[in-house]
Amino acid sequence: MDRNMRKLMRSTVGVALVAWACGQAQAGIVLSSTRLVYPAQDKEAVLHVSNRNRSTILLQSWLEADDSTAVDLPFAVIPALVPLPGGGRQTVRIIHSGGQMPTDRESLFWLNVQEIPQASEQENVLQIGIRQRIKVFYRPRQLAADPEQAPRQLRWRLKPGGVLVASNPGPFHITLVDIELFAGTDRLLHRRSSMLAPGQAQEFALPASVAPQQARLRFKSINDHGAVVAYRLSDWKTGQALWAED
Known about the structure:
One of its GO terms (biological process) is cell wall organization. The protein has one helix and 17 strands. It is mainly beta. The termini are far apart.
């Protein structure tokens, strides 16, 4: 084996090992929250970012619309790009610039926070910037409903042919986890996560039709603080749920 071939093999193995290590690694930055609620009456929404790396990184933050189609959003993210020393902490602010927003419902955005490592002086070292995304809910001041009650306002029904329908008549986004439908001891549905926007309905296919008197529905919802709250359907006639502890 000639020298060039041995060099190529060492380089290939080195990159493969680094790529595997990067796949196993976790992000070096820690966010203070898994979601942000931005009440319209507040001047800003704030997220704290901690750097648990030993070295300085570049911290890049930007906001996207939920459908990723809008380019110019009426918000500023400050700072958009900033060095963050190892062990340091940075405050990221989202500020509404005054552009018009819907007043009868929440608007959903995504805050992207990405760490960009410093360039390495070593050869054949693969470096990647790890990005984290969290939901940002912009909440108009005119909404009179209570967001804590929003999961109980969902309406659930069973359609012929084996379909479960969830409808959200309210103005808030509702994040659901662990949706389970049972008929006796048989679990016909287990959906780990889903989100219902204001006014949205969503259908879940079941393996078979089930009569309402045989069906038991349980689900969990994530509230403004990131806590998970459990619910159970109390009455298929109204389609309304109660807290599971009730």
